[in-house]
Automatic annotation (TrEMBL):
GO terms assigned for molecular function: O-acetyltransferase activity
GO cellular component: Golgi apparatus; membrane
The keyword Signal is assigned to this record: yes
Residues annotated as domain Trichome birefringence-like C-terminal: 108-246, 260-355
Protein name as catalogued: Trichome birefringence-like N-terminal domain-containing protein
UniProt record similarity statement: Belongs to the PC-esterase family. TBL subfamily.
Signal peptide region: 1-23
Organism: Thlaspi arvense (Field penny-cress)
Trichome birefringence-like N-terminal domain: residues covered: 53-107
Main location: membrane
InterPro entries xrefs: TBL, TBL_C, TBL_N
Length: 359
């Protein structure tokens, strides 16, 4: 089995808001594996300070005129969904493209597509999750294509598995759509999330990957007609909602109150600041830490929540090819404040992924 003995990434974005409110991934914990197959070759000094004092996820956004890393026209062939292609669909401002994430104690290495492909030769990198995973998958395709321009590539768009093949290096970068990650099935006529299970079909495909990046979040907290499930099952017991004994619901509400005040429409600069504007993550972080600690595979939590929460300016709002003109005239109701423009924030997620994976 080629798969899980390599470095496995757990990338969790919890998106708790819908519709017009600004939604940002929650702050979660991160844990580096002490060793991995990719680190067997001698360690190169890349971060200017030693690794243990470098927290990639604590830092600030700084203006950088060399950004963005690519233009949307540089990644043709339908790599960017219309819903993320803000510049093509009329976004008038471009300052939001000019920010770089700067950790306090070290520098993030600049993404080098050729190096990435060389190191990943014969390997499969797979994003698993909801449309934010797709957002990040498309970003990585664009980053690779623009920084390794002479490669021969091929994209297969299918549901649930889409694959970008870089033929010259025998590398696959895939996206597997699984918004809840866990299995979802009809039990006694009710659509049920089986919290302890992954479907056989999904796990057979995930096993073929060398590196897996997971994300999940806002599908869990949809309500009303948007909710895609009727009950949850764990340990043979059924639950109608995420409240007691589980604390997610009250935590989501806390986040909604602190973040939901402002629509992303018309926002052109990041929030200033270097901390997440709420402490509701502390308890959540503990839960995640405990779960990750118990996992047998090498797992890292990419804690992109705080840095993303600051980027109120990075969402498509109405500059999405998915909105018709009448929806665009009504930003308060139809702005997309969940996904992210490309180029944009997901490029930073991938730069951090690249740094965590290869350095
Ligand atoms: C690395 O950084 C940590 C935390 O600042 C420090 O305690 C440790 O001594 C440093 N190690 C080396 C080899 O510099
Ligand atoms: C990649 O696969 C090819 C063909 O099987 C093999 O010749 C080559 O050594 C492999 N390279 C790496 C780095 O695994």
């Amino acid at each position: 089995m080629s798969a899980l003995q390599c470095l496995t990434f757990l990338f969790l974005c919890l998106l708790l808001l819908q519709n017009t409110t600004s939604a940002s991934p929650l702050r979660l914990a991160r844990r580096w594996p002490s060793h991995s197959n990719f680190a067997k070759h001698p360690r190169r000094v890349v971060f200017p300070v030693n690794r243990s004092s470098c927290d990639l996820f604590a830092g600030e956004w700084v203006r950088d005129e060399t950004y963005p890393l690519y233009r949307s026209i540089e990644c043709g062939g339908g790599m960017i969904d219309p819903g993320f292609d803000c510049q093509t669909y009329g976004r008038p401002d471009s300052d939001y493209l000019k920010f770089r994430w700067q950790p306090f104690n070290c520098d993030v290495p600049r993404f080098n597509g050729v190096k990435f492909l060389q190191e990943m030769r014969n390997k499969t990198i797979m994003f698993v999750g909801d449309s934010l995973g797709r957002n990040q998958w498309e970003s990585l395709m664009c980053m690779i294509s623009s920084s390794a321009p002479d490669i021969h590539t091929h994209i297969i768009h299918e549901d649930p598995l889409s694959t970008f093949k870089i033929l010259d290096y025998n590398v696959k970068v895939s996206f597997y759509r699984a918004p809840y990650l866990v299995d979802i099935d009809k039990i006694r006529g009710k659509t049920t999330l089986k919290l302890d299970e992954i479907s056989v079909d999904a796990s057979n495909i995930w096993r073929t990957a060398d590196v897996l990046l997971f994300n999940t979040g806002h599908w869990w907290s949809h309500t009303g007609s948007l909710r895609g499930w009727e009950q949850m099952e764990t340990g043979g017991k059924y639950y109608g909602d995420m409240d007691s004994p589980n604390e997610w619901t009250s935590r989501s509400k806390a986040s909604t109150i602190t973040q939901g005040a402002k629509s992303c429409y018309g926002q052109t600069t990041p929030y200033s600041g270097t901390t997440y504007p709420t402490s509701s993550y502390v308890s959540q972080k503990k839960v995640i830490d405990e779960v990750v600690k118990e996992m047998k595979s090498h797992v890292s939590l990419m804690d992109i929540s705080m840095l993303s929460a600051l980027r109120i300016d990075g969402h498509p709002s109405i500059y999405s090819g998915d909105l018709n003109p009448s929806l665009k005239r009504n930003p308060d109701r139809s702005s997309d404040c969940s996904h992210w423009c490309l180029p944009g924030l997901p490029d930073t997620w991938n730069q951090l992924f690249y740094a965590a994976l290869l350095f």
